[in-house]
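Can't paste images in this forum, so I'm doing it all in text. The chain is below; anyone willing to post the predicted structure tokens underneath?
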Amino acid sequence: MADKKGGDQNGAPPREIITRFEEASFEYGHNHPILDEVSFSIRKGMKVTLMGQNGAGKSTIFKLITGELKLNNGRVLNSRGVSIAMASQVIPPALRERTVREFFESCFPEKVYDIDPKIDAVLEVVNLHAPKERIISSFSGGQQARLLLASALIQDPDLLLLDEPTNNLDTGGIEHLTDFLKKYDKSCLVISHDAEFLNSFTDGVLYLDVHTRKIEQYSGNYNDLLKEITARIERENRKNAQLEKKIQENKDKANFFAQKGGKMRLVAKKMREEIEEMEDDKADVRREDKTIRPFVIPSQPEILGDVITITSYVTIDPKKHVPVVHNKSLSLRKKQHLLLRGPNGIGKTTLLEALASGKAEGAQIAKGVRTGYYRQDFSTLNFDHSVRESLLSVMEKQDEERMRAVAAGFLINADHINKKIGVLSEGQKGLVAFARLVLERPGLLILDEPTNHINFRHLPVIAKALDQYEGAMIMVSHVPEFVSQIRIDEILDLDKK
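Text version of the structure:
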């Protein structure tokens, strides 16, 4: 494991720096600062985690490294000849209608001859069977996540940038990715909120503090970071408590001497100067990232009887890529929660979309039931709408004060409310989507991977809200720890015959 200087704990010399930020500052316009004179480096062969609150600017750092964005001040220096490839969170819309072969060809600035063997090799690494003539949009979210990783690997980069690589991956996919990263002998910088995944391979952590806009560097994994931050806060609070006690004692004495008059007033003046010095010595205690406030998703109150009835459903054969119809007798009433399970590519997202739209053959939603639908790709949101427009649009009776109160609970403040959805980070889009569900008051809640992109601090709050939801709920999630916190009344395993 590397220490903060990049050396080995056994005394080996520091590894070569391949990427370095020097006094780097960046902002989107004048009202959205991201980095303030940040300095850090990434060394050859290191596997580093980049962490921070939703919207802090983690993905922006990736774009600064690749050159997609330019600094306002300072420098980003990549070693001469170093190659960099990034697997982003989602496949760009412009590439979704291309074939698998065309998608991989787009990874290179010039035509690569005989690319098929290279494609076969990287698809083997990510454990995905993908015919080269198949259209990208026809793959599931989890399969697209594997394609994104493969698109970076096919470039064989010196520095691999992974932005939320476990999003949409099933358990097998995460295990496969973890094993790959453990064996990967080049440099890797990963953005993720999955602590268990990060702890399995991380050498060090870069923490982007949304308050100071600085990068803090930590050796070890995420658990080590938490211990170090906790210990630091305790030290700072302890020091401040001791100073505060002494300050109060001196204030009492200064007031006493000031009342005596004469020379005692000079003593009081000197003590007040000492008090000011002690105030200056108080530590600026680290401000932790805020967590969203506890919330309730109100259920449509007037519903009686079955909310949704399912007599059959369709899955996709992952090998033959053909639909398969299954007969099933299933109904959900209020306060009943259903978990859908199955591997990537079996058609979970397709099934949820069909259910939410009311177009699923073999499924019937009761008349008058409002459906709240959380999509993993946030396509239920209009990216051209402002946050304010998006939230007001789902309210039966538009109430600005109510809307802003709910938004504030999801850390959507005055700085965000008039921004377009499209400029928000993926995590912030997720919080907007949850705020919409609160304002919508659905009778049926359909959730497709609700943990994707969401800061780990928020997940227990979200899990509690879903656990307490009193309407009917259908959910897909590949995060066992999250699911374990939610009341599940029935499980439908799509992989079982």
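The longest helix spans residues 222-260. The longest strand covers residues 17-27.
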